[in-house]
Every structure is written in C-alpha cells, then in structure tokens.
Amino acid sequence: MKIYEGLADFPILNNAVVTSGTFDGVHLGHQKILNRIKEIAQQNGGETVLLTFWPHPRLVLFPNEHNLRLLSTFEEKAKLLRQFGIDHLVTIPFTKEFSEQSSQEFIQGTLVDKIRCKKLVIGYDHRFGKNREGSFEFLQANQAKFGFELEEISREDVDDIGISSTKIRNSLEVGDVKTASAYLGRLYELNGIVIKGQQIGRSIGFPTANIHIPNDYKLIPKDGVYAVYAEVDGVSYKSMLNIGNRPTVDGTKKTVEAHLFDFQGDLYDRQITIYFQAFLRDEQKFEGLEALKSQLLLDQQHAKKLL
Which residues are 3's β-sheet partners? Predict the structure, then answer.
C-alpha cells in the first residue's frame, strides 16, 4: 500500500475504485466497504483508493470538544488498511479552509481531476463538502457530469450487523471490550512506549511496564484490570493490564501498566502493543501492598484462564 499526504504526488491511474471517509477503527461496517471496492477492482483490473482526512474533522471543527476520543491513530489505521490490501491511501490535510469547500468543488477538484475516479463506493449517509451538503442523491443526479460510476452500501447492509464507531467507543468506555472486539472484528489495541515508573510492582513480584500513550486523542478503555496480550518486537506475551490511579499507593495520575507473565528482560524505551481480551475487575484500593499482591495473584490466575 502506498501512502500519500495530499495529492501532489498521486499517480495517474487508469481505473481508480475509490471510497472516502474517516474510517476510525476500521470496524466491520467499514470492512464491508473495503471488501466491496477490492471486489470491484479485481473484477475490472482496477486499483483501490481510500481517501481519508487527518486530523479527524471533529478535532479541527470543534477544538473545544475535549471529550472526543478516537479508536485508531493514523498509524494504526494505516496498518489495518494495509492488511486489508488497499492499494493507495490518500490523506487530505483537514483544515478549516478545506472544510469550506463546497461538495461541487471537492468532487470535481479531488475525485475527478486529481484521483480520476472511475467508480465511487460510499456508505449510506456519507456526505461531501461544506455542511455535508453533497449527499448520495446529489452525486446520483450529477453522475453523468462527473463521469464516474456510483454505488452506495445500503443502510440495511450496514445496520444488519449494527456497527458504528460510536457503539464501539461506548463499549470501551464501560470496559466492555468483548462487545468492542466483536464490532471491530479483532481485539482493540493500544500502542505506546515503555517508560520508567515507580517500580512498586517489582517490589511485590509483579514488575510492570509503564506505558506512555503518545496520542492524547486515543481512546483508553475504562479504568480497571484486564486480561491482555502484550506484543513486543513481534512476540506476543500473555499479560494483565491495570488502567487507573493506583489508589493503594496513593497514585496522583492515571497510568497504563502491563505485567507480562513470561517475559524476562528490560522493556524501557521499547514499543509495545496491548490487545484487550477481557475485563477482570474494577480498580480498587487495598489496605496495603500485601493485600494488593494477594489480589494480583488471583487476577493472574483468572487472566491466564481467559487467555
């Protein structure tokens, strides 16, 4: 998959099969669209093009809306799209100026003139241009003028599996990683870098990797203890993870800490990916470190069974 920031270097394609959207999370609903454009491209000797926007439009249009959390960083989204076999990923830098473009300007200037779209596939209720004025009906009415074929993934097709990014976010915010995984078609992931912590876990036999999540817009699931897989250098380790303020040791800020069951060595400054398998329990305050250790032993047994 080739990635382009903007369209200055986008090549001339003879048969571009295009879709457009934010594709946050690349969930099962999105995957229906991806599979469809791949099918069309294979039938017609074409190439698939996914046009997306970065930063996420809501981060630009509503900068004071601090509660927006995304299911995927751009790097995570690109990795997933590559796995799905998309040929070309185009990111349009989303600015307030860009948001003022009319649907006519965007469709003609981007889809027609720059990408040379031959077939456009969109999900139901997808709209282009300022104030989302460019509806499917608008595209359909101007199809001959724009010179590309048009297909909409119907509401029935998408609603049949009841998927939306909002439903997934809501599930993660209450710790329901099982439902989130079912909607995503895979385990939800966090990517970060291991940094030095207070090393309290090491003192009770549960050394943890303190994970810094570099993107503050990335959704971190509800506070609590989880059974997870931790991947380091392509190797997956059964693990458990705590998200929270560590009340037993009077923690003052939220941390994300993983205990890898069968890992020996130094993790500092290394990239780590966490895959959420199951929610074990809420975070709680214990009388002391020994009581905490006793509970962690139970958590470990529970996590190993689930993993």
Answer: 89
Q: Is the pTM of this model over 0.70?
A: yes
Q: What distance in Å separates the CA atoms of residue 179 and residue 185, rounded to the nearest whole number?
A: 10
Rg (CA), the chain: 22
Q: Which CATH topology does 2-155 take?
A: Rossmann fold (3.40.50)
Rounded Cα–Cα distance for residues 104 and 253 (Å): 48
> Mind listing the pLDDT tens digit for each residue in 233-252?
999 999 999 999 877 776 77
Which CATH code for domain 171-306? 2.40.30.30
Neighbours of 152 (CB within 10 A): 18
> Can you give the residue ranges of every domain in the chain?
2-155, 171-306
Q: 2-155 with 171-306: one CATH topology?
A: no
What confidence tens digit (pLDDT) does each residue in 125-143 have? 677 766 666 677 888 888 8
